[in-house]
Specification:
8-stranded antiparallel beta barrel, 234 residues
């Protein structure tokens, strides 16, 4: 009887401590910081040479609820090409930057697996510059032209998302996220070309001009893998 009473008292004494330890573990990390990459599934090895990279920040505001913010950027360039007619100055440069803010709910599947869902709003800007400097000869004689394209992009989007997270350790996790963003995009394109054709008699005929294009569009996109990432709890 004395042993049974002692065990009962011991369990009663340790129960609050165990409950407090579980609560402390669940709320120990209020902040999370992650690095993300957005692969392209179509043409995986060809189109993923320059991945959009991003930073993801989450702050726990309630149990299994988070405010989150993301920044995504990409830059790529090429200065030369492998065609004999292309001259120095040929190449392209492209960059884009997007920012998002949203809210997320999490649900545990097991000790290591959880899934989450939520919604974000965001805006982005991008620029593309491409130039082809070409020189060759045709039936009339030497011909050359300088073609330049400048594209500007602005966009805003509403982005419902869902994802799966796997906890490697209590602090480190990997995640994969899908999304179905509703995107508004405005395009502002400019094309300028200058060319000259030289004839056998020595005369030169200039050609070229400048054109502007502007368009607005709405799109609903389905991205089965919006990004993959590595997350640390702070």
């Amino acid at each position: 009887m004395n042993k049974l009473a002692f065990l009962s008292l011991a369990l009663c004494a340790t129960a609050p401590a165990a409950t407090a330890q579980t609560a402390d573990t669940a709320t120990a990390y209020k902040h999370q910081l992650g690095l993300t990459a957005s692969p392209v599934l179509d043409g995986f090895f060809r189109n993923n040479r320059s991945l959009p990279l991003g930073l993801l920040y989450k702050r726990q505001v309630r149990t299994q609820q988070f405010l989150r913010a993301r920044v995504v950027g990409q830059y790529s360039s090429r200065d030369t090409a492998n065609y004999a007619q292309l001259q120095d100055g040929t190449g392209f440069k492209e960059w884009q930057l997007q920012a998002f803010i949203g809210y997320e709910w999490q649900r545990h599947i097991s000790r290591r697996f959880s899934w989450y869902y939520g919604v974000e709003v965001g805006a982005g800007i991008g620029r593309l510059y491409q130039r082809n400097v070409v020189a060759w000869s045709n039936a009339n004689g030497p011909y050359q032209y300088d073609w330049r394209y400048t594209g500007k992009r602005w966009q805003g989007q509403l982005r419902p998302f869902a994802g799966l997270e796997f906890a490697i350790t209590p602090r480190w996790s990997v995640l994969a996220e899908m999304a179905a963003p509703i995107v508004y995009q405005r395009l502002d394109d400019r094309v300028r070309s200058v060319g000259t054709q030289q004839f056998p008699d020595g005369s030169v005929l200039p050609s070229g001009g400048t054109a502007f294009y502007t368009s607005d569009s709405w799109q609903l996109r389905w991205r089965p893998v919006q990004f993959i990432g590595l997350l640390v709890r702070l």
